[in-house]
Sequence to fold (1255 residues):
Amino acid sequence: MQENGQIFRISIDSKEKGSEAKILEKKLFSLGFETSIEVSKVYTIQYDFSAEQITAIANALHNPIVETPRINSPSKKEFSWALELGFLPGVTDNVANTTTEIINDLFKINIGRNKVFTSKLILIKSDNLKKEDIEIIAKELINTLIERFHIKSAEQYTEDNGMDYIVPKVNIKEEQNVIAIDLNVSDEILTELGKKGIPDPVTNTRRGPLALDLDYLHAIQAYYKKEGRKATDIELESIAQTWSEHCKHTLFAGEIDDIKEGIYKKFIKAATIKVREDLGDKDFCLSVFKDNSGGIIFNDDWMITDKAETHNSPSALDPFGGAITGIVGVNRDTIGFGMGALPIVNKYGFCLGRPEDKTFIYRGKNKTNPALTPRKIMDGVIHGVNVGGNCSGIPTPTGFVYFDDCYKGKPLIFVGTVGLLPRKLPNGNPSQDKQAQPGDNIVMIGGRVGKDGIHGATFSSEEMDEGSPATAVQIGDPITQKKLSDAIVKEARDKELYNSITDNGAGGLSCSVAEMARECGGFIVDLEKVPLKYPGLPPWETWISESQERMTLSVPDNKLKEFMDLMESRGVESTVIGNFNDTKKAIVNFNGKEIFNLDMEFLHDGLPKRKLITKPYPYRTEEPKITIDNQKALFEKILGNHNNCSFEFISKQYDHEVQNNSVIKPLQGKGRVNGAASVVKPLFSSNKAAVMSQCLYPRLSEINCYDMAACAIDTSIRNCVAVGGNIDHLALMDNFCWCSSNEPERMGQLKDAAQACYDYATIYKTPFISGKDSMFNDFKGFDEKDNSIKISVLPTLMISSISIIDNAKDTITMDFKLPGDLIYTIGMTKDECGGSEFYRAFDKFGAKSPKVDAQKARKLYETMFQLNKKGMFSACAPVNQGGLLITLAKMAIAGQLGAETDLSKAPNDNLPIEKIFYSESQSRFIVTINPKDQDEFVKAMSDFDIAKIGTVKEDNEFIINNKEEQVIKTDIEKLEKIYKKRFEDY
Amino acid sequence: MIPKVLIMSGYGINCEKESAHAFEKAGAECEIVHINDLISKKKKMSDYNIIMFPGGFSYGDDTGSGNAFANKIKNNLWEDLLEFINSGKLILGVCNGFQVMTHLGLFATDGDYGKRISSLESNTSNRYECLWVNIKNNNSNCIFTKGIEQTHLPIAHGEGRFTCDKNTLEELKKNNQIVFTYCNEAGDDAENVYPINPNGALNDIAAICDKTGRLMGMMPHPERAIYSISEPEFHLKKEIAKRENKEIPDLISSNFRIFQNAVDYFKDR
Fold:
């Protein structure tokens, strides 16, 4: 350990117990451990510093008002157990990197990388805890995939004079050589190669899945036969990345049944083409489906971009790391759009198992390799988006959580980013156009490359099982990316210092360089130039690693110096790693030796076309018969259930005020109710605003996938319209998260959903501008009795909507505003409780899914927009999950005003009162209006089904009648309590 | 004269744009300057009249919020900063900027710049909090807050719990250095009740200034709250005004005043 310098251990103790220690005590108490806790920050530094220097460092690392430092000496505090938590070797340690910068700046030196390591020392005082208990605590606090822990009793600690000095350096023993692989082998060996990966010649262990099927391997085999040589490992790994489902979306692109062009072209892309044709000169699309995000017109000078991604597999293994890299990753889809857009909004959507579900499931037999519990996944992903978004200075006004047991094995973690960029660069060129030129330098900027995130793309194209690699996990470093983002979007872009830019996402350099090279024709990379986090990475890993916070740019020679100087002055590491050319060849050298030489055409288009078939999915056909004993109790149950209750604790830990663009915030009204859409006004110089929503209806996938997609589209649009959105300037995005996509029935569901996407997008005239799919969201493993289990997510389609409006002031929130206002319902309530929260309360799915009449709905949305602009409504809410009654309750809670209504008056198909309450029929709203506007309102709505159902009350009573009968009587305080109870301690 | 404002940027600061806008709206001339351009002497502090340390996450809050950025200033720009302060100019720090100023020791009760007297610790919830709060002015000395009694604006931070020892607190009171404290809508002290006091700050302290009243640090974000449309109550207020045939004013004057006061300070100079 001593070979690289002396090891110092600086510990920073708090003078008084801090919030972290107090919250930790509470958490341990909830686990059944009564303790008293002290937390210290520990910096382990390996470098030959003098005593004075190390004291100066310790001084720079603490605030003397509240903290005291210790150098190489043990704590004098009284405790029973010492527990130290730190990172495993190679895991990005952001605090250590900042500390290194502090030290370098302090002494004007450069101590180099991997000299500082941070950890946390927790001193636990307790009378009765055993070592096993401390181990349980440790495992509760960390993720053993990325973090380590060490335990010492007080006696041991005293005897050893403190904790051990641990330097978690990466030691790579692998060879850096490139392996040649003979593909002239049997199909059996080929299949094994595809499924388990390339065997390491020394250890003979497999490197992890290539996720290449036999037909793909045959194509590769044929290519090398023609070339007359063996493949290299880096070539195979690279082809696997480029051809992965994650990158090529083969299930969406492949021929399916009689649809030659595949689902994507036939339904999604075709819808956008038709909408743009129909819109004619009102077409507002600027860049669709070809870039990292989609781009639409904001006004004459500005463009808005939108993109939504998922990070499901990484989040299942490491929820914090998966979510933070998800959100900062989708930020790069914005920075990497066109010549670079500024992220102005982050969005999230978490589909999770119920957090109180504590039944373990395992990836391995005999209770080995347990999956993380839903609660741990929930805490981790919430915190990941918190750190990623907040640290990046991007507001998060929009998001949702959705709970269902189907997400227990694999959560769905949606992350999205809206961006803003001028439509023209200073030189007059459209900002969405970019093209790498032959001769341009390939420049990688941002973070360095390590072993993190190896096989991310191929891994998410597979089902999750015991062999799922831990190295697929990535750790985010939002500040490195913030520096990069500012330097690009706020400076380099407008100086026109590069010709093209793209994100390093799935597949790392192998995908970003190869993808950008399509713009000019070829590339040569000298791989040894790529800066590494630690020495010893084999070339193939450097090439495909998904280490985060990196982008690839194409920089011409005459701009190179200015570009590199700018990056250096902004603390952004940038490196020339090769050149683009027009040779039609993709070439990678390592220390002067060619290790990779493929035809560009083969690399990108050599994969054989798939032929997929579908079978009809056996949808549910049984409609339940439900009897209700107590209407009020049922109402309270549904209002307080997972999917209707408040998730304010998430909304308020995400900064939604930064950039000063928020107009309709995540929480609406005095009563702070989670809304379905948000509004931002991104320019100080204009009142133009963007309206956003996201929505999904996974339970309908069991009943009718066509309706599932239709409802998602209608709801997403309706949510926008309710706050003032304009359907004539509204774009959509699709995020398909499917399961078991190798089963024809599941593909049958996909086809149904895609057909609805086409039908509804074209009738609504709302184009899809971007989309993404994740096709294998299945968990395979074992239950507590060692039975083999498979948990598949319900096929889930998240539809995002974004609408541009002229005036942010013409928006409307859901909260009741003034007593005496009239309450109206708009839209027809039908016998459509299939998949509803109402049926969920009885553990039923039902069979009658909501049907969407898009022609009628579009007319309604046009009218609503016009009335909104006039200021007709004092409050407006879309009727979503839970139906009319839940929506009404939320409007009352938000406004802190009561209401008396007769819901039987709401236009309906002669339904029993509970179905009027809870049916989830689409295209409906509840609005309030000033009584003096009644005539004008009724006249304007003459084509639609409306009914006055009651009035807003002065007091806080909430009364629901069914004709003469009073069905529910309660008050706002009680409702608010129920609405906010479930997560009040989260 | 029209004051020139240096809006500090770099390393994760993220509120520079809205900060510059607020000062510009108040009539100042603003420049967003990367700290490395000051260190490399491409830009000079002495060319400016006001420095603003905006909010953000400098160095990701690693080693304590504001600490690493303060270290960078101490190591490279300390003399320039002292000269700036001693020439009678103004400094405003918001959120992360307040944290940086705290670590720089700009609020010393004996006027000895460079001595830390307080700390902004993790919120009692140990979690990032983003919500709107009410604060009231307790100060007659601070340049930035003249004419402000009470105002309403957002906080957004993980480490905003003001703390110091008893003697320091007494000194701060004696010196008229406590500026804003958290209160309820009616103006009553928060008395450390969440969420009226959103972070558990000692004595509900939300902002302090130096002895001269020219340097102020505050946790809440006035630059995010100069327009009425940013208020969570905007839609309610709009509806009430409409029924009275009125319109609500564009600006939230009690927040805008902070920037206006800073600009006005240089009016006759």
Remarks:
- The first strand of chain B starts at residue 4 and ends at 9.
